[in-house]
Please model this.
Amino acid sequence: MARAAIPGRLAERLRWRVATLVGERAETEAARTLVFDVPGWPGHLAGQHVDVRLTAEDGYSTQRSYSIASAPDGDVVELTVQHVRDGEVSSYLTDGVLAGDQLELRGPVGGWFVWRPEQTEPVLLVAGGSGVVPLMAMVRSRRRTGSRAPFRLLYSVRTPADRMYLDELRTPDPGLDVRFLYTRQAPDGWSRRPGRLAAPDLAALAWPADAGATVYVCGPTGFVEHAADLLVALGQDPDRIRTERFGPTGG
Model:
């Protein structure tokens, strides 16, 4: 039986490409942003992810998926990787890979949890821990394209030391409102006691239910489900709440 041909654009996204590490920077003690040059990169949308494949000299191969942190920028792709204890891939990416090293990327992947520059409606971003990565790509894409869509970001972390992209998020931007939530330890003098995300936290930042806002929620499974339930209870349209979650993968 003949096989159906894979459309050209899809075939391009499914092809493994050699990526060379050309830069890096620390985001937190446990997270590192890696900058790759990927010749022939087909471009991506904010919110998409890639598959990363590592192959050892003996032929052993393993792969993981990581959200893209960067706005579209030619052949450059940035990934922010959080170290996972005993993680096979994350340990290498955060501690072992060096400038000039190569690995394989496949993608971009995903077409629902994305923000497009032509969107003009208000946007609420709700991040739990490293779930901020694809949401940061949306913030960066908004800035790069000069979009006037108003953004609000609620970023939940355990402690102040766990905040990624802090300098960038603190850069004044009249179209972006950023608020932090701390679940374990808050900065001295912080008005809210450390604790889990609650309805008042979202109510203080969410757009009115009739504003037609799109909501993006990303983080661990429990956080995402909890946040989505709170948003619906606050009157947000479930059809306009987009979620992406992650759980233990072995790193």
Observations:
- Confidence is low (pLDDT under 50) at residues 1-6.
- The longest strand covers residues 16-26.
- Helices lie at 8-14, 88-96, 132-145, 166-170, 199-203, 221-233.
- Residues 123-246 form a domain with the Rossmann fold fold (CATH 3.40.50.80).
